[in-house]
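Hey all, quick one. A colleague (J.T.) asked me to put the zinc ion job into the tracker so the inputs and the structure tokens live in one place instead of scattered across chat threads. No bug as far as I know, just bookkeeping. Sequence used:
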Amino acid sequence: MKCPRCQASVLSEQTTCSACGFSATLLHNLLGNQWVRLERITDAAHCLRLEDTRRLEIILDDFERSFPQAFFATYLGTLPKNLNVAELGFWLLNQGAFNTHSVSRRNDFGMVLVVDPTEKTACITLGYAIESCFSPKVIARMMQTVGSHLRKGAFGTAIEATCLRAGEVLRKHARHMQWQPDAAVMADSVSDIGLQPLRGGHRSSSRSLAEFPAPRT
Ligand SMILES: [Zn+2]
């Protein structure tokens, strides 16, 4: 991943950026180091209309269908002064348990678009496993497109365009990449068949029987 402060490359086992000294501990002090449950679309700033959200859910589903290990998530919110969009994106990919359709999706195959509508800033953060697919030039183009939509207040279009473009980029690379699941993850017996969430924060999609009305007699 890229350091959220200086954009230098940071290895997954590194806790401090060797270029600028940025440490994930700083973010943990600010945001905590627990896993947080998140929907794929978190609109804390209320930027999206209902039809935007519905449309985006379909696009995110298509993305997940095309790339069985990857997911796309987005967060829109006004951030505190001591936190920037890149830092939040970095933290979300490290601590977010996103409510994707398949629990086996891992965050190193994830990408998050963070938008701060108040500061008018946005950032795309890529997981370790997919970041090499996106050249700086590709990311710069994507950010230009995001910016042009956000300036018009077209939040839904900005997210849609980013997800579709990411799909194109990954599709181009998919032929050369080996999409092999991690052996350590596969070894987990019961959780593998979907009976238990692999990532701690996942919500169960089933409802308890008590929520259903009793049949009339
Ligand atoms: Zn750095």
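Adding what we noticed when we looked at it: The CA atoms of residues 102 and 212 lie 25 Å apart. The pocket of zinc ion is lined by residues 3, 5-6, 8, 17, 19-20, 22 (CB under 6 Å).
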